[in-house]
Amino acid sequence: MNGLRSVAKKGFLTWLHEARPDVLLLQETRVEDHQIPKEILEQSGYQTFWFSSRRKKGYSGTAIFSRSKPDSVSYGFDGPASDDEGRIIAACFGDLLIYNVYFPNGKASPERLKFKMDFYEAFQKKVVADVKSGKKVLIGGDVNTAHHPIDLARPKDNEEISGFLPMERAWMDRFEAAGFFDIFRIFHPEPDQYTWWSMRSGARARNVGWRIDYFYASENLRSSVKDAFILPDVPGSDHCPIGVNLEHPSS
């Protein structure tokens, strides 16, 4: 989501009531608590949990909408103070732990690229520990990297651009080797499947895009994963919604 207040004016509630996901993960909400549109809080039909950026106003931010009450909700790596950009919320339902993550973008500067890579590594350590503790982990969000050449329309043109750098893609290799799998590619190995398009030059209409939004699951969830999908025709943002279907994921 490229700003909650923006998409709220573009039919977000109508889409939400039609789609009716059990759990919805939003990234880049760009709102502080007092700026959340009143109609979303009162008319969504969901319990909502918000984590806003404390580093800069109108920046980053994540939210979880859930039909059922989570057993617990956590913010950041070890609490809100450790993630001042509001990038991680996790909701626990029994042994199922759902992470909503807005991974950093590394294009702005070498410093931000380093921040992105450090964030990747810290997050991997956290979720590996979660699995070792007995949790089944589902991760959804904007990873801000296309993993393979099939995941963007013009791979050759972007080999030196953050979002398709060898170091970023190598982390995704390591992440999968650590016990997590890209759910979408289990069901959809075909090309031309993207989740983000530049707002310039009619890229979306021409489907010149990137798949940078992912759902990952730990291996102990593999038998529960039944489908994954991308909804490229849903307007309102430069990203589109993605989703997964799980069956009886908790023991």
Give me some keywords for this one.
three-stranded antiparallel beta sheet, 13 strands, 251 residues, single chain, 24% helix, Deoxyribonuclease I, Chain A, six-stranded mixed beta sheet, alpha+beta
Written overview of the protein:
This protein has 251 residues and is of the alpha+beta class. The protein folds into two domains: 1-75, no CATH class; 103-251, 4-Layer Sandwich (Deoxyribonuclease I, Chain A), CATH 3.60.10. 24% of the residues lie in helices and 25% in strands. It has six helices and 13 strands. Strands 4-5-6-7-11-8 form a six-stranded mixed sheet. Strands 1-3-2 form a three-stranded antiparallel sheet, with no helix packed on it. The longest helix is centred in the middle third of the chain and has 23 residues, at 110-132. The two termini are 32 Å apart. The model has no long low-confidence stretch (mean pLDDT 93).
How many helices?
6
DSSP strand (E) fraction? Answer: 25-35%
How many domains? The number is 2
- What is the terminal-to-terminal distance? 32 Å
Q: How would the global form be characterised?
A: globular
Give the overall pLDDT as a whole number: 93
Describe the secondary-structure layout.
Layout: H1 4-8, H2 12-19, E1 23-27, H3 38-43, E2 47-51, E3 62-66, E4 72-75, E5 88-93, E6 96-102, H4 110-132, E7 136-142, H5 166-177, E8 180-182, H6 183-187, E9 196-197, E10 209-210, E11 213-218, E12 225-230, E13 242-246
Parallel strand pairs: 6-7
Antiparallel strand pairs: 1-3, 2-3, 4-5, 5-6, 7-11, 8-11, 9-10, 12-13
Helix pairs in contact: 4-5
